Amino acid sequence: MDAATTALTTLGQQAQQASYTLGLLSTKQKNAILLAMAQALIDQQAPILAANAKDLANPQIPAKFVDRLTLTSARLAEMATGLRQVAALPDPIGNVDRAWRNDAGLLIAKERVPLGVIGMIFEARPNVTVDAAGLCFKTGNAVILRGGKEALHSNQALVNVLQDVLQAADVDRHAIQLIQDTSHETAAAFMRLTDYVDVLIPRGSARLIQAVLTQATVPVIETGAGNCHVYVDQAAQLDMATKIIVNGKVQRPSVCNATEKVLIHRAVAADYLPTIIQALRDQGVEVRGDTATQAIVPDVVPATAADWATEYNDLIIAIKVVDSEADAIAHINRYNTQHSEAIVTDNYQAGKVFQQRVNAACVYINASTRFTDGFEFGFGAEIGISTQKLHARGPMGLNELTAYKYVIDGNGQVRQ
Amino acid sequence: MDAATTALTTLGQQAQQASYTLGLLSTKQKNAILLAMAQALIDQQAPILAANAKDLANPQIPAKFVDRLTLTSARLAEMATGLRQVAALPDPIGNVDRAWRNDAGLLIAKERVPLGVIGMIFEARPNVTVDAAGLCFKTGNAVILRGGKEALHSNQALVNVLQDVLQAADVDRHAIQLIQDTSHETAAAFMRLTDYVDVLIPRGSARLIQAVLTQATVPVIETGAGNCHVYVDQAAQLDMATKIIVNGKVQRPSVCNATEKVLIHRAVAADYLPTIIQALRDQGVEVRGDTATQAIVPDVVPATAADWATEYNDLIIAIKVVDSEADAIAHINRYNTQHSEAIVTDNYQAGKVFQQRVNAACVYINASTRFTDGFEFGFGAEIGISTQKLHARGPMGLNELTAYKYVIDGNGQVRQ
After folding, report:
1. How far apart are CA B387 and CA B369, in angstroms?
2. Which Pfam families does this chain map to (chains A, B) (predicted)?
């Protein structure tokens, strides 16, 4: 065992031990601790802000990281509000999905339990530290956090505050732990800590998530990549299509549920392309187009083959003309990331076929892809948006941070 | 891309294409095809039995594989019966788990869909070929089968028969495919075919499953390892404990839900150990014991540290005396495989604490661990028993071979 793995093993054992006690806390106890954590972030902001200043003083921090890395009193207050919201949500732990008596007379109950130990791997965003810690704690999970190295001091200060609240409430402080060694070797060892970590949830760039998927032997929930399409059917209300496409692209272009591609049925392309391209340009969007689009609006940027698979996360969009709904669906299933896809149509059959055949977590008729979100879905929280099919798909709220166990009551039954 | 990966990529693409069409079949169509497959196994047994004879003629087959590898008319009839039973089960695809309207007025429905392409890796058991193909087909999943090399001719013959039934019904024959190249290189490439395979389910020995867990980048459902315990509490009915332990050990010792370990509360150890050890020996079981057990029954085989983590799958059991229920739970959580655990007790509190604190898929009060089984649970089928927490835990029936997707109906909603 190498040194990185040895250090992590201790941390993993502590997390696992803590997880056994977390599952026994009542909802009332957990909520009281979440509220105390919220208050502590406000009361103890001085050391947190001092640690954050140390991170920001690092001359090697890329300029684009500065905003997301910066903590202020207002941002700490936002984090505290987030924790209070989590405290107010219903607790899924202990819920019984269903219960039945089998032929042998056993009463079998499928009961929601914590996953156990959750590993979170993320970039230099200190807000993720508090957010993930709160969601995992509410669901009785121990969490091991591995944040970006640029935020190490901030994360340490935040975790210290949260751990002190745990300890004051007689809860094992190892329920929330931070990996202090931000080397790649330690990250790689963390991803293989199968004896102690039940699931890894990476949050961040496509590159980060790919690295985790490739290296991990711990089960991973893949999140966040979103190459989302809007298909404008020949039976679309075109003004509705424009609202949906513009909202999907410009309302928050950096996020995973932003619309990245538009497919337009050939029957409406000549009429509609000038309108939608103008509407997007009015919002500062760079529009790229395939050859059919170029033929109608010659000054679009020519789209290359690479465009169809690219998630821009920026004010850029690519448009392609398709011959049929079937072509649109085939294109989407080839290039999408199984996140969110939309059709705009007034044709009932076209809408239902699209919903059935498109392979994605969320498939919309006549609505913006931007709705794929735990809060918009009414979950009251979100740990990420899953783009895989196992365990959880789409927005993940508290329920998606649980597993189940069968608890079975007998009176001496043996198998025949 | 190496040659093994190139060949597999074609196979994966074909499976993915087939999966898109399978999701569109009606339950009635799928059931008719399953019944036709059952009939074809009986009608076309001659080429299947000839292929099987070729496998059995291989002089390198270990003697212990011969029985599980041998096909007969009776065994083909059993496989056919299995397919007919799967046809008779309710189809989970298209079920709506729940549907609601969100604040923006969108109607959101969480609908059951196939997982997509399932990869099965298993040993030289031709019955798994038919069983897995039937369960995957019923749930609209394409399947890629990689069976043990000793059964290759048998598996080819079986898959040919099933594919011909698909083709006769105008269904893509690539819905069921067999990997013909049984090299380790191809198996390793298969486990990394993330673009085309949605989930891998290994079925077989602990060694096989560990190999898959270590090498795979495709998400894996871990199945089958069972180091199951029975804890005899101080408040146990001892005659009930004996029935449960003997049933758990001897009714079918080779399977994963067999009882492998017994923990006995010190307060009843002196009274109970001679009885239970005699009862086990009467059934031909080798009894191993810790030092406390040896002190009471001196002629037990001394248990070593390795015993506590070992799944015997044989007529061997190890007994340990514990000081308390807490010690029993700690021992189980340290050494178990999260499969099935049981307490025998008449103390309500002891039973409920055990169910809550033991970390396993199935936790029994006063019943045999042998009940952890898809048929005993009333699922009507079983693809395996999951010992992980993500996605599925415990016996996996048809529902556990599905994912979900959110289908969302709007009328022009955009995000504020």
Report:
1. 14
2. Aldedh
- Return the number of CB contacts < 8 Å for A and B: 200
- Average pLDDT per block of 10 residues along chain B, 416 residues long: 84 96 95 98 98 95 89 97 96 97 98 97 92 97 96 97 98 97 92 94 87 91 92 98 98 94 98 98 98 97 97 96 98 96 98 97 98 94 92 96 98 96
- Averaged pLDDT in 10-residue chunks for chain A of 416 residues: 84 96 95 98 98 95 89 97 96 97 98 97 92 97 96 97 98 97 92 94 87 91 92 98 98 94 98 98 98 97 96 96 98 96 98 97 98 94 92 96 98 96
pLDDT tens-digit profile of A265-278?
999 999 999 999 99
Q: Are B336 and B359 in contact (CB under 8 A)?
A: yes
Most A CBs within 10 A among B259, B390, B393, hence the mutation to make, goes to B390
Structural contact between residues A122 and A66, judged by C-beta atoms closer than 8 angstroms: no
Burial class, A195, CB count within 10 angstroms (exposed 0-12 / middle 13-18 / buried 19+): exposed
The DSSP letter of residue A303 is: P
CATH topology of domain B3-222+392-409: Aldehyde Dehydrogenase; Chain A, domain 1 (3.40.605)
Task: Name the burial class of residue A164, with classes exposed (0-12), middle (13-18) and buried (19+) by CB atoms within 10 angstroms of its CB.
Answer: middle
* Segment A366-393, tens digit of pLDDT: 999 999 999 999 998 899 999 999 999 9
The token pair at B89 is 């089960």
ipTM of the complex: 0.94
Q: In Å, how far is A194's CA from the nearest CA of chain B? A: 10
Q: Which fold has domain A228-371?
A: Aldehyde Dehydrogenase; Chain A, domain 2 (3.40.309)
Closest-CA residue to A175 (of A160, A163, A187): A163
Q: Where in chain A is the domain with CATH 3.40.605.10?
A: 3-222+392-409
The CATH 3.40.309.10 domain(s) of chain A lie at 228-371
The residues, any chain, with a CB within 8 Å of residue B39's CB and separated by 6 or more, are B80
For the record, the structure tokens of B224 come out as 């089958």
B104 touches chain A (CB under 8 A): yes
B144 touches B120 (CB < 8 A): yes
> Quick check: A408 and B363 CB within 8 A?
yes
For A386, residues 6+ apart whose C-beta sits below 8 A from its C-beta are A221, A222, A223, A361, A392, A393, A394, A396, A400
B246-277 pLDDT tens trace: 999 999 998 899 999 999 999 999 999 999 99
Residues of chain B found within 8 Å of residue A256, distances taken between Cβ atoms: none
Task: Say yes or no for a CB contact (<8 Å) between B371 and A413.
Answer: yes
Total number of residues shown for chain A: 416
pLDDT reported for residue B224: 78
Find chain B residues with C-beta within 8 A of A412's C-beta.
237, 240, 243-244, 366-367
Q: What tokens does B46 get?
A: 């001659």
| Window B:267-326, CB contacts with A under 8 Å | none
Is residue B158 within 8 Å of residue B127, measured between CB atoms? no
CB under 8 Å, gap of 24 or more: what pairs does A214-220 form?
A214/B217, A215/A188, A215/A191, A216/A191, A216/A192, A217/A191, A217/A192, A217/B213, A217/B214, A218/A119, A218/A191, A218/A192, A218/A193, A218/A194, A219/A390, A219/B219, A219/B220, A219/B388, A219/B390, A220/B219
- Residue carrying structure tokens 């005699």: B278
Touching A: B residues 41-100, CB under 8 Å: 100
